[in-house]
Design goal:
The complex is a heterodimer. By secondary structure, chain A is an alpha/beta fold. Chain A has seven helices and ten strands. A six-stranded mixed β-sheet of chain A has the order 6-7-8-3-9-10. In chain A, strands 2-1-4-5 form a four-stranded antiparallel β-sheet, with helices on one face. Chain A is globular. Chain A starts with a strand and ends in a 7-residue tail after the last strand. By secondary structure, chain B is α+β, with helices and mostly antiparallel strands. Chain B folds into two domains: about 170 residues, no CATH class; about 170 residues, no CATH class. Chain B is built from 14 helices and twelve strands. In chain B, strands 3-4-9-6-8-7 form a six-stranded mixed beta barrel, surrounded by four helices. Classes of the chains: A alpha/beta, B alpha+beta. The interface between A and B is medium-sized, with 27 and 25 residues.
Chain lengths: ~230, ~375
């Protein structure tokens, strides 16, 4: 299957004060379209940095990052913003919803950047709310929702613009076991039924087991692990 | 329009802070509106004063009343279209605290237009009232305000006690009310009455044949200053030298006596507006700092740097413009009261326009630093709230 994500010789260095820290060392990665990849590793191993590079939130120091056929490491800031809006959906550990906006307004945010009419946006939001099972909570603000419900809203927001790639950073890190299982089940359904390519960072082996492939990031290098239980 | 909810909820994220800033902007623009409006209103009052009318007063050195005979020389001077005069009888009505100033007018129809001219359009004199005054030797025209204040009516005889004595040694002057001139409700001419010069001049024991001021109308308003100089030169070597100036200049001088109004107003308004820029800048810096992760999320979702900048700028713009509208509205409401002290004073539309343009500029200047900071925010740093 063709790769949706390709990283070649990627090096990422950070400057912290007078120190230069190399987080990723000449890293190569191929993620085929439709794969559910889990990235595991200890804190500071570079897995979130890798996820940020794949999602176009950060640029490598050297190397190539090709996602959905585009050399995103060469895009300007505004081009990258447009590219993210078109191709990537993000799910974060702490949901990162707008606290003042209702669930439906949060989900609608990515659609504001499209040319869809208000009625079309409303229809799409309603469909996304239904997909994540929160139709009855459309008018609720994040503070009025449980952690699991907030993460569902975040997933609906990530999916609303129909991205090719879903990037999840510890999506269950702030949830209890039951809610976590619920969310991971939903992500797995998105992968299996809608064919979304998913790259997920997690500490949790049980969460990683939902993926079809697991990679360990260790000291800035990738180590192939056993296939996830979801394979 | 589709971004409006995002902007609106951003504004009301901290309701108390937004309300306080809104009030601050409103108070600042109310002050701007009142002061700037006062200045423009005063300029307007001066501009409305007739440019062709001169006041000939006794010179500051002599201070002696002017001889009435000057009027013939004035009327004979080329470039002067009309000339008349008045004297003043000061007194009280019933109580020493109820002061009345009587302007003793020469019998002349020109007063119908000149009286409003020298009293800054505070009174309107109808021809029938003027004729009634001229045909009754002891007649008096009173203002509507004085009629209300003292309960006077046409046909009443009113005694005025004055230090100006009559030929018989009495200081009690009696006048017959023959008409009421309408005065602007806000005008401060309530205690003024208008009487006949001939009666005053013949009845008073001293200063016979003298006047307080001449009122002159020149043919060419553009030569008002030149004519003023010519008149003063004409009487320079007499026993009663004159000090002549256009009414417009006298009005301007009277207003200037309040102080260097322009400088004062400019200083206060500038200080207030600069303080406002800092307040807006502080508010927006705080709001951007607090919302760093949210702004990073917007960027993550695909909002460009420019879009984020415009969202932040729109918030400041809405708060500032709304505050300015409230403030300018309050200022406009104040002007009917201010006009009691200066007839004709009103809020010029141009001040409202300047105020709104100012609000836009202040919000843009105030928000610029924080908005630029928001655009430079790196998504990864923002998500980590760094």
């Amino acid at each position: 299957m063709a790769s949706l994500v390709s990283l070649h010789n990627v090096i990422k260095r950070y400057v912290r004060g007078k120190q230069i820290i190399e987080v990723l060392h000449q890293l190569d990665l191929e993620v085929p379209a439709g794969q559910f990849l889990a990235l595991m590793g200890p804190s500071g191993s570079g897995k979130t940095t890798l996820l940020n590079l794949i999602g176009g939130l950060d640029r490598p120091t050297t190397g190539e990052v090709i996602v959905a056929g585009e050399r995103i490491d060469q895009l300007s800031s505004s081009q990258l913003a447009k590219w993210r809006a078109r191709h990537v959906g993000f799910v974060f550990q702490f949901y990162n919803l707008m606290p003042m906006l209702s669930a439906e307004r949060n989900i609608e945010l990515p659609l504001l950047l499209t040319s869809l009419s208000s009625a079309q946006r409303k229809r799409n939001v309603a469909a996304a709310l239904e997909l994540v099972g929160l139709t009855s909570h459309a008018k609720h603000k994040p503070a009025e929702l449980s952690g699991g419900q907030q993460q569902r809203v975040a997933i609906a927001r990530a999916l609303i613009a129909d991205p090719t790639l879903l990037v999840c950073d510890e999506p269950t890190g702030d949830l209890d076991r039951a809610s976590a299982s619920d969310i991971l089940g939903l992500i797995q359904v998105l992968n299996r039924q809608q064919g979304k390519t998913i790259v997920m960072v997690t500490h949790d082996q049980k969460a990683a087991d939902y993926a079809s492939r697991i990679l360990h990031v260790d000291k800035g290098q990738l180590v192939e692990a056993q296939a996830g239980a979801g394979a | 329009m589709k971004y409006f909810p995002l902007i609106w909820f951003g504004i009301w994220r901290r309701p108390l802070r937004t309300t306080l800033i809104l009030l601050q902007v409103a108070v600042a623009f109310a002050l701007f509106g009142v002061l700037q409006g006062m200045k423009s209103g005063m300029d307007q009052v001066v501009a409305n004063v007739r440019a062709d009318v001169l006041l000939v007063s006794p010179s500051l050195e002599s201070q002696s009343p002017l001889p009435v005979a000057y009027v013939d020389r004035l009327r004979a001077t080329p470039g002067i279209k009309a000339a008349t005069f008045f004297a003043v009888l000061g007194g009280t009505y019933q109580k020493p605290t109820q002061r009345v100033a009587a302007l003793a007018l020469e019998s002349n129809d020109v007063w119908q237009t000149l009286l409003p001219a020298i009293l800054l359009n505070a009174v309107i004199v109808l021809p029938k009232d003027l004729h009634a005054l001229q045909s009754t030797r002891t007649g008096a025209l009173i203002t509507a305000a004085s009629a209300r204040k003292y309960g006077w009516h046409v046909g009443d005889r009113i005694p005025i006690t004055s230090t100006t004595l009559q030929n018989n040694g009495s200081g009690s002057w009696v006048f017959d009310i023959v008409g009421i001139v309408s005065s602007s409700p806000q005008a401060q001419v309530g205690n003024g009455i208008f009487i006949n010069y001939d009666y005053l001049d013949q009845a008073q024991a001293l200063n016979k044949g003298t006047v307080a001021q001449f009122v002159v109308v020149v043919s060419d308003p553009r030569r008002a200053e030149v004519m003023s100089d010519r008149i003063d030169r004409m009487f320079a070597n007499s026993s009663s030298p004159t000090d002549t100036a256009p009414v417009r200049v006298r009005t301007q001088q009277a207003l200037q006596r309040i102080g260097d109004l322009n400088f004062l107003i400019r200083s206060i308004v500038s200080a207030v507006l600069v303080a406002l820029v800092f307040s807006i800048a502080t508010m927006m810096m705080q709001t951007v700092r607090e919302r760093t992760p949210e702004l990073a999320v917007l960027k993550t979702l695909g909002f460009s740097d420019l879009a984020v900048l415009l969202l932040i700028a729109a918030e400041a713009l809405i708060v500032c413009t709304a505050g300015a509208l409230i403030g300018l509205g309050l200022a406009t409401g104040v002007f009917p009261f201010a006009a009691r002290f200066l007839p004709g004073l009103s809020m010029p539309t141009v001040v409202l326009a300047y105020g709104l343009v100012g609000a836009v500029l202040i919000s843009l200047i105030g928000v610029s630093f924080s908005a630029l900071r928001a655009t430079k925010l790196q998504v990864v740093d923002g998500l980590a709230n760094r």
